[in-house]
Amino acid sequence: MRTREGMAVTRARGRLRVKPPELSTRQQNHLVQLRAAGEHSIADLAEMFSVFRATVYRTLARDQATSHPKRSRR
Questions:
Q1: Would you state the pLDDT for residue 36?
Q2: Whole-number pLDDT of residue 56
Q3: Contact, 31 vs 23, CB < 8 A?
Q4: In this predicted structure, what is the pLDDT of residue 29?
Q5: Distances (CA, A) of 43 to 8, 17, 59, 74
Q6: Contact 53, 46 (CB under 8 A)
Q7: Is 3 in a helix, a strand, or coil?
Q8: Concatenated DSSP letters for 14-63?
Q9: What is the 8-class DSSP label of residue 4?
Q10: Rounded to whole angstroms, what are the CA distances from 11 to 2, 7, 54, 69?
Q11: Per residue in 32-60, pLDDT tens?
Q12: d(CA 45, CA 49)
């Protein structure tokens, strides 16, 4: 609870530091296009962009979530 309070104070002052993304928006779009083409595996993409496979999976999952929102069930 004290940590959250401290973060809120820091955020209010505009000093909260967040880790920058490993891939730029342009790189993320390129990664998604390469994967959609079906010519590269996840390991290939990770090596090409010098990131871990988990980063590739997260990028693809984020893209899928934004471009294909879940349908609501009745």
A1: 95
A2: 97
A3: yes
A4: 96
A5: 39, 30, 14, 39
A6: yes
A7: helix
A8: T----PPPSS-HHHHHHHHHHHHHT-S-HHHHHHHHTS-HHHHHHHHHHH
A9: H
A10: 14, 6, 28, 30
A11: 999 999 999 999 999 999 999 999 999 99
A12: 6
Question: Cα(52)–Cα(46) distance, rounded to whole angstroms?
Answer: 6
Cα–Cα distance, 56 to 45 (Å, whole number): 7
**Which structure tokens are listed for 6?**
């401290």
CA distance 8 to 2: 10
Calpha distance 28→3 (Å, rounded): 32
Cα(20)–Cα(12) distance, integer angstroms: 19
Helix (H, G, I), strand (E, B) or coil at 11: helix
Closest CA to 52 of 23, 16, 17: 23
Q: Which residue type is seen at 52?
A: F
